[in-house]
Design a protein that fits this description.
The protein is of the alpha/beta class and 172 residues long. Helix content is 40%, strand content 18%. It contains six helices and five strands, in the order βαβαβαβαβαα. Strand 4, helix 4 and strand 5 form a beta-alpha-beta unit. It is globular, with a radius of gyration of 17 Å. The N and C termini lie far apart (66 Å). Bound molecules: 4'-phosphopantetheine. The site of 4'-phosphopantetheine has 10 residues, from strand 1 and helix 4.
Length: 172
């Protein structure tokens, strides 16, 4: 059985993440979405909320795959998660060249720690290539429409700023 771990902050999960997950599910028998506590970032939502939102998104948008995709929260190293769940693959998405350097570094470091684990990259679909969780949060906070960028479960939860400074205020 081919098991893969898809690690990330998912703060929040976007349609770009879902696209990568869909494609990973077409290749692997089981995908463990690992919501990792990243000591270098201070997340907007607690890990429990991120896990719950991903589960809801999967139920809404990938219902037929929910028995092969599990979502869990983890602390520690991605490679330790792989060992714990019996995964020989790490899945990551690449949006553009800008992602490449950091991803290459992570893949090499993970491989140095766990030579039995390989990183597999999926190119994010072009229509999602501009998406990032942080931009989604910012747009939502200023009242912008993020409905095409995130699953419904996320759009429902995101705090909508409601006011868009400068928008609709004619300066004559
Ligand atoms: O969605 P992100 O924030 O780009 O995901 C980064 C993540 C969580 C995959 C990365 O920070 C990670 O693997 N963290 C777990 C700790 C770890 O294994 N660090 C060494 C990576 S070489």
């Amino acid at each position: 059985m081919r098991v893969a771990v898809y690690p990330g902050s998912f703060d929040p999960i976007t349609n770009g993440h879902l696209d990568v997950l869909r494609r990973a599910a077409a290749v692997f028998d089981r995908v463990v979405v690992a919501v990792l506590i990243n000591p270098r970032k201070s997340p907007n939502d607690p890990a429990e909320v991120r896990v719950e939102t991903i589960r809801e998104s999967l139920a809404d948008e990938m219902a037929s795959e929910t028995d092969r995709i599990v979502v869990e929260m983890f602390e520690g190293l991605t490679v330790d998660v792989c060992r714990r769940v019996g995964a020989r693959f790490v899945v990551r998405g690449l949006r553009a060249v800008a992602d490449f350097e950091a991803e290459l570094q992570m893949a090499h470091m993970n491989r140095a720690m766990a030579p039995e684990v390989d990183t597999v990259f999926f190119m994010t679909a072009l229509e999602h290539a501009y998406l990032s969780s942080s931009l989604v949060r910012e747009i939502a906070a200023f009242g912008g429409d993020v409905s095409g960028m995130v699953p419904i479960a996320v759009a429902r939860r995101l705090p909508q700023g409601g006011t868009r400074p400068g928008v609709g205020q004619a300066s004559l």
